[in-house]
Design a protein that fits this description.
The protein has 441 residues and is an alpha/beta fold. It folds into three domains: 2-78, Rossmann fold (3-Layer(aba) Sandwich); 84-292, UDP-N-acetylmuramoyl-L-alanine:D-glutamate ligase; 301-439, Protein-Tyrosine Phosphatase, Chain A (Alpha-Beta Complex), CATH 3.90.190. It is built from 15 helices and 19 strands. It has helices at residues 16-27, 61-65, 76-83, 97-110, 144-147, 181-188, 190-193, 208-211, 264-278, 283-292, 320-328, 348-357, 370-375, 391-401, 423-439, and strands at 8-12, 31-35, 52-55, 73-75, 88-92, 115-119, 137-141, 156-159, 200-204, 220-225, 233-237, 240-245, 248-254, 301-306, 309-313, 334-338, 360-365, 383-386, 407-410. The strands form three sheets. The protein has a nine-stranded mixed sheet with strand order 6-7-5-8-9-10-11-12-13. Helix 4 packs across helix 9, helix 11 runs parallel beside helix 12 (348-357) and helix 14 packs across helix 15. The longest helix is centred in the last third of the chain and has 17 residues, at 423-439. The model is unreliable at 166-176 (pLDDT under 50).
Length: 441
């Protein structure tokens, strides 16, 4: 920790991770200045006067390179890897990081391990660094932003599905974080690029950008899949999740016993099983956790049952792709709540799925993007209800047509800022309205 004492250190970005970095480094005797873009366009102009620059994930590395050499730049994540006395399991990917990381963590805790969960999931790892012992184990959800300048990798690295994200320019012409898919994938692959021979890499077999990441490691490689068997790893076949490792084939669980809904969560379950197994978690603890894990808030979260209909909160769904995964999770008659503010998405595939699925009973359209979504839905059998002005009206409309056995699904496929503060606010309002319905029974 003496590396910080009396050093002039700039923390760039005043978000959750930036504040945690500043507080931790101050405790080590450093002279800390927090710089944020809210201070003006030229807030980075004097970076050369600092001994060390600690970058927050939302600050592009290239922006800092214009002002100071890379040898002075580090990040919360890089520093944590340097200082952490415990082994680290790292999870990255475009979708599923939070669910998979949380599932691994719960398996470790079930097995009695001194486990900690942090990273992109919302808990800066400096918050628990001082509690760690060599016998502890850390699970980190890692975004491409956190990984882009890493020069060390976790001992178990999990690479989930990788698809285009944070690329090009948004609807307003502003450059998103990564200019190209190649840059985005390269950032993700830092999770494995610096592994050692004694380390492990767990790859999604079903997505080329993920599966081909094995070229970047010298560690032992395992795969997972929900589409095919794998020679070493974990896969979903029929209704079974099966583990293959060390010349053993082990049935883990019938997928119908999972509380996590949706085939996409079979991928996440397989990845978590493989990581926990390599970390030494007992099969009993792995199986027990899979049967009881309910998932994360606002991600296909079962809110409750009202008059025999189930209400699901998937407010985290802000793209057509995530809404498609949620809609495909059910065979019951579905009442969908779709729409919100723009992310410049293409709704053609979503419209095709809804039009052809056969179990979509009704759609309640909300927000400014609903007219664009509606254009792509070509079915006369689906009841279309126009725009609840708020969540109370929207849930009330759903409840009037919901019958026993139906699923009411909030999976908007859009951002939330036209009607709500953020996706969490949207989800919380949905849950509150469902609670009110239950109280009226």
């Amino acid at each position: 920790m003496d590396k910080f004492k009396n050093k002039k250190i700039a923390v760039i970005g005043e978000g959750i991770e930036g504040k945690s970095s500043a507080e931790f480094i101050k405790k080590q005797g450093a002279i800390v200045t927090v710089l944020d873009k809210t201070q003006g366009e030229d807030y980075l102009k004097d970076l050369d006067k600092y001994d060390l620059i600690v970058r927050s994930p939302g600050v592009p590395l290239n922006d800092l390179k214009k002002h100071v050499g890379t040898e002075k730049i580090t990040s919360h994540t890089k520093l944590f890897f340097e200082l952490c006395p415990a082994p680290i399991i790292g999870v990255t990917g475009t979708k599923g990081k939070g669910t998979t990381s949380s599932l691994i963590y719960e398996m470790l805790k079930k097995d009695g391990r001194d486990a900690y969960l942090g990273g992109n999931i919302g808990v800066p790892p400096f918050e628990f660094l001082e509690k760690l012992k060599p016998s502890s184990i850390v699970v980190l959800e890692l975004s491409s932003f956190q990984l882009e300048d890493m020069d060390v990798s976790p001992y178990i690295a999990v690479v989930l599905m990788i698809t285009p994200e944070h690329l090009g320019k948004d609807i307003y012409g502003t450059q998103n974080y990564h200019e190209t898919m190649e840059e985005y994938v390269s950032s993700k692959r830092n999770i494995t690029r610096f592994q050692k021979l004694t380390d492990f890499l767990i790859l999604n077999r079903d997505f080329p950008a993920s599966n081909e990441s094995d070229v970047n490691t010298v560690g032992k490689v395992y795969q997972f899949s929900r589409e095919r068997e794998v020679s070493e790893g974990c896969f979903a076949l029929g209704n079974q999740i099966i583990l293959r490792a060390n010349d053993r084939e082990i049935p883990i669980i019938d997928t119908r016993e999972l509380l996590l809904r949706g085939n996409h969560n079979h991928e996440n379950a397989c990845a978590a099983v493989m990581a926990a197994y390599l970390a030494g978690v007992s099969l009993e603890s792995i199986k027990s956790t899979l049967k009881t894990f309910k998932g994360l808030e606002h991600r296909l979260e079962l809110v409750g049952e009202v008059n025999g209909a189930e209400y699901y909160n998937d407010s985290f769904s802000t793209t057509p792709e995530t809404a498609i995964a949620a809609i495909e999770a059910f065979t019951n008659p579905e009442i969908l709540i779709l729409g919100g503010s723009s992310k410049n998405s293409d709704f053609q595939e979503l419209g095709q799925l809804i039009s052809g699925k056969g179990n979509i009973k009704a759609i309640i359209g909300i927000g400014e993007e609903w007219p664009r979504i509606k254009e792509h839905i070509k079915s006369s059998s689906i009841l279309m209800l126009e725009g609840g002005k708020d969540m109370h009206q929207t849930v009330a409309a759903a409840s009037k047509i919901a019958l026993p056995g139906d699923v009411v699904l909030l999976s908007p496929a859009c951002a939330s800022f036209d009607m709500f503060k953020n996706y969490k606010d949207r989800g919380e309002q949905f849950k509150e309205e469902v609670r009110k319905l239950r109280q009226q029974l």
